[in-house]
Amino acid sequence: MKIKNVVIIGAGAMGSGIAQIAVMAGYNVTLVDIKDEYIAKGMSSIEKGLNKLEEKGKLKGTSAAALIGNVNTTTDLAKAAKNADFCLEAVIENMDVKKQVFKTLGENVPKHCILASNTSSMSISEIAVASGREEQVCGVHFFNPAPLMRLVEIIKGEKTSDVTVAVARSWSYSLPCLKGKRYCPIVLKDRPGFIANRVNAPTMILMQWAIDKCAEKGIPFEQLDTDAFNPMSPMGPLVLTDYVGLDIAFHTMQYYVKTLHPDFAPGKVITEYVEKGQLGMKTEKGLFEWPKGKKPILERTKKANLFTVEELYAIQANESCRLLEEGVVKDWTTIDKTMDAGYNAPGPMAFLVDGNREKWPKLLNELADKTGREYLRPCELMKSSAYRELRVVK
Ligand code: 3HC
Which residue among the candidates 89, 93, 153, 222 is catalytic per the annotation? Predict the structure, then answer.
């Protein structure tokens, strides 16, 4: 199937980033949002990105102006859908809003059109029902910032056809990545958070506990960032949460409360910040200050001593074992590659496999005792260490 006309719904950071690389790949792009001001903001960010590339001489055989000319904009989703070959939804993480978008798409797109959601954690199968064409719906999950991050997860919903998965995957591989080679693994089961976000999810349980402890004891959050400092990772978990948005973390955790475990409940501090609109980089203030969107400069002189980097790896490895138990992925090699492409940081499983097998379950039990969070206890696969065999040997 030849894809020419691509419709991106949602002109926020993700939607505009994806629209930029889609137009760079040669597609006719239509960017849709509910308000002209949201579209204007998205277009300005696309223009900024393309101009930057033009200045560097990286737009071969074309210009920023010509590419911008290939991006149409509208607030009329039904009209935009009429001519679409491929639609990608990147609206807020609210199931009702997503269902409404897919209903409108289902009623208006041509028969052959593939429908994709960039949801970061929600059920593709549930979203798909609203479209009335479940076989043609899948997840196509980008990482922020989409033009720079290599990972795109392709998620198979309960009724997604193999053809839909293949078309969505080859479309994703056709989009340029400004930093390295794209990696687009297939997520075999539609489970909350898919692979990369799910592996990382329970570290948020520990973070909520630690952030609230800092607030109680008057310890600056900067010291927590020092606890988490890992030279192999471009951003610590707190800075990354601010970067992605505290509101996104908050809503995702609420979703995990419903779908995974009550221990995912957002803590006091993050709840208060979200209520008052202190959302991280986009509001220039979150857990840290982001003046004009610039990354916070942290001193890293003193630790809070509330957790260690090794504990973060243990939590990620335990969740990776749960993904293997659930059949979301068949081997841990794919998990590590996915983490590397999605966070520019090494995945947890290589550490686990090379380490002492009794050490990790013990460490996880100690963490659960320390925090009172039962979800952090080792799962069966982690306890048995049978995960060692679940690898791809080249
Ligand atoms: N178009 C063109 N150029 C762009 C661009 C764009 N859209 N965006 C950035 N650039 C350029 C920058 O201007 C810069 O150019 P320069 O070198 O000439 O100044 C260049 O690309 C590199 O940008 P940075 O200086 O910002 O690059 P860094 O080396 O600092 O890396 C980073 C930035 C890649 C974001 C790195 O900090 C990183 O890997 N952070 C971790 C990000 C991460 O983990 N993301 C995943 C979050 S979770 C998620 O998204 C899941 C979702 O479901 C919520």
Answer: 153
